[in-house]
Amino acid sequence: MRGFLKTILAAAIGAAFATGPALADPMAEIKKKGVLVVGVKTDYPPWGTRDASGNIVGMEADMAADVAKRLGVKLELVSVVSSNRMQFLQQGKIDLMIATMSDTPERRKVVGIIDPVYYASGVAILANKRAAIKNAGDLKGKPVCALQGAFYNNDLQSKYTGRDLVAFKGVPEAEQALLDGRCVGFVYDDVVLVWKKAQEAKWGDFEIVQLNEWQPVPWGLAVRIEDLNGPWGKFMSDTVGDWLKSGALLDLEKKWVGGNTAWLSEATAKAKK
Amino acid sequence: MEAVWDFLRHVHDAYGVNLVHFYDGFERGRMLRGMWTTLQLATLCILLSVVIGIVGAWVQGSRSRLLRAVVQGYIQFFRNTPPLVQMYFFYFALGPMMPRVENEYGIPQPILGSFEWAMLSLSFFAGAFNVEIFRSGVEAVQKATVEAAESLGFSRWQIYREVVLPLAVRVCLPALNNNLVNLAKTTTQAYAIAVPETLFVASQIWSDRINVFEMMVTLLTFYLLLVGAFVWLMGRLERALRVPGFGK
Questions:
Q1: Between A166, A173, A180, which is nearest B95 by CB?
Q2: ipTM, 2 dp
Q3: pTM > 0.90
Q4: CATH architecture of A123-210
């Protein structure tokens, strides 16, 4: 009886240690399976969303498709959200994560963020053309619409506008206030503003002015941290480098976002050199 | 004063209690401006809503059925809809329909801004209740008193102003106090249409500085003091207006 218990115990302990993929080369494994599993977002148009028939589409879905093409395997997209995307990667549910993730030092300790980064979002103002805003310095003393709780609000007010912001809880309210002429512009993430302006005709009298006073926050795609310096991490790093050099990302951004952001244009120019 | 701010900085470093809205000049400035805005908004709303209440209660006793119906409609509309919804409606639905004036930045702007709309919508909201509160006072005035004034040749407006209202106010003052205290607190809803009042500023500060607990305590204390001062004032008014023997 005791021997039987011992066996079960040993098996249980063995199983506990054996979980988690201990693969030497995930790239070889992907090729053997014939399927690449990529985690992308479905709640963040136009980077990751679902079309009318439920398929996952978007700029990042297209990027995933290109990776599968380069590997010569089939693509399987898995919907992830901000709160589970890193766990999905760690647990081996996905081979690669392309999910609008900001690159931070804390995250680099948990997942293998690929260098170079593929995208970045900065801060811009969707400004009324009549106000002729050229940079943040032009905002002095002017009413500026914003979103309550945005990280740049404090700087925006203390260094540039010098007056209380016209800040709302949600984007629709801020947009409405801007359209109603209650502020000279709406300060928000540049990539979303570029997309909105390209999508909606009502912004014809408005222009997007990049506010270079705030550094763009890079977005990184990621593999498991133990694969970062292996062949799989190396392959993805080369792939991103190639996307930048060939201008493929600019084309994808043009297709999905409707225009090009300053950061990506510069990153492409730098990669071409 | 600098010594106090330095001490509060020390409290932050040593104990992690972040009273940045006191010791930081920028945060203190906007916090004080926010409190001043709250004070202005509350005072203006209280005065305007009392005027609405007095006039409304008089019109309710009017001989014209149309006028009475208008007041009744006004009360039903403002009493039966939430004040936050009214504020959104005024600012986002009615506001853009107002005539526009080109502002100094060359943008045609609706004539009424967020502060004005907050003031109007809150005053109308509280005013609807005030009409009913004043009516309760008016109806408590003895018919004989009104008849006596009529027999002395007072006009209808004279009777209301000189006889009925002074007595009615004394009867309805406690109920009026309640409603005005509520009104002072409801000014926080102006936050939703970007009026930079106390709650608006506080939420900006706590999202920047992540000192949510300290801001909550400051907010609560501020409103406690503000409403406390108002209640004390109204208590004094009530005592000053006391007519010995009236209502006993």
A1: A180
A2: 0.85
A3: no
A4: 3-Layer(aba) Sandwich (3.40)
Q: Give chain A's contact residues with B (Cβ, < 8 Å).
A: 128, 130-132, 142, 145, 148-149, 151, 153-154, 157-158, 164-169, 173, 176-177, 179-182, 184
> Number of CB pairs < 8 Å for A and B?
63
Contact B31, B222 (CB under 8 A): no
A132: left (phi over 0), alpha (psi -120 to 50) or beta: left
Domain ranges (residues) in chain A: 25-120+218-272, 123-210
- Domain limits for position B49: 2-240
Q: For A127, which residue in chain B has the nearest alpha carbon? A: B107
CB-nearest to A131 from B26, B106, B110 is B106
pLDDT digits (tens, 9 = 90+) for B16-72: 888 989 999 999 999 999 999 999 999 999 999 999 999 999 999 888 999 999 999
Say how many CA atoms lie within 13 Å of A273 toward its Cβ.
6
- The CATH number given to whatever domain includes residue B15 is 1.10.3720.10
Distance CA(A191)–CA(A100), nearest Å, equals: 11
At the second CATH level, the architecture of A25-120+218-272 is: 3-Layer(aba) Sandwich (3.40)
Distance between CA atoms of A162 and B67, rounded to whole angstroms?
48
